[in-house]
Amino acid sequence: MRSILERLYEGELYPAEKIVSTDPKYPLLEREIHKVQKDLHVLLNEDGRKQLEHLGKLYMEENTMDCYAGFRHGFQLGARLMYEIFIREER
């Protein structure tokens, strides 16, 4: 098996694509969001539908930024933790 570092370097590893919530409420929430979007799509005129679509894209962009920040923070925290463990072990 190839190392994680090799797979990252070769562009074979995409952590963000593997993250899916295991919360049992997640599928219900997804269905509810989809239903509300469909209902609004029927109720709104063309301009309203375009605004709704634009809002969805903005939320996706914001969510992507939040996910990246969380991933980065977690990774940094893990690295600091490992550093602290190894430094204390040496003393």
Essential attributes:
single chain, 91 residues
Topology:
Elements: H1 4-9, H2 15-18, H3 26-43, H4 46-90
- How widely separated are the two ends? 35 Å
Q: What structural class should be given to the helix and strand makeup?
A: mainly alpha
Give the proportion of residues in helices: over 70%
Number of strands: 0
Output the radius of gyration. Answer: 20 Å
Shape: elongated
Describe it.
The structure is a single chain. The protein has 91 residues and is an all-alpha fold. The chain has a domain at 47-91. Helix content is 80%, strand content 0%. The protein has helices spanning 4-9, 15-18, 26-43, 46-90.
Brief rundown of the structure:
The protein is an all-alpha fold and 91 residues long. It contains four helices and no strands.
